[in-house]
Amino acid sequence: MLQLLWAQDAAQTGRQVRDALAENGDPLASTTVLTVLARLEKKGLVERDPATKAYRATTADPAETADSMTEVLGRSIDRTAVLQRFTGALGVEDLHVLRAALDGAGMGGDGVGVDRRDV
User: Fold this and answer.
1) What sign for the dihedral angle of Cα 100, 106, 111, 115?
2) Would the pTM count as exceeding 0.70?
3) For the residues 92-97, what does the mean pLDDT come to?
4) What's 26-94 look like in SS3?
5) Which pLDDT belongs to residue 31?
6) How confident is the model at residue 9 (pLDDT cuts 50, 70, 90)?
7) CATH T-level assignment (fold) for domain 2-57
8) Would you list the domain boundaries of the chain?
């Protein structure tokens, strides 16, 4: 449901979400859709407009966020300084996630798997 809401420019009612899911081959009962949306709202992932009863994602699509970060980094003349400042501002948990992502991509701290032409 979050992917569906991320893809929309405007907030969507429960019925609109249900209809879109059905169009994508995932038909669900209205009560199921509303229950999931309510749970997402409690977690702070969507917000509901009380007047229109429409839902909007409160968090950004991870792919869009990553694309934005890449775009901003690409505008810098000193990528090293930007990355050092960025990682210096991260908390311990985020650093662990980043390390795991680098290790998973074959780019651990030993430099193995890193193509220096891409750095």
Assistant:
1) negative
2) no
3) 92
4) CCCCHHHHHHHHHHHHHCCCEEEECCCCEEEECCCCHHHHHHHHHHHHHCCCCHHHHHHHHHHCCCHHH
5) 93
6) confident
7) Arc Repressor Mutant, subunit A (1.10.10)
8) 2-57, 62-111
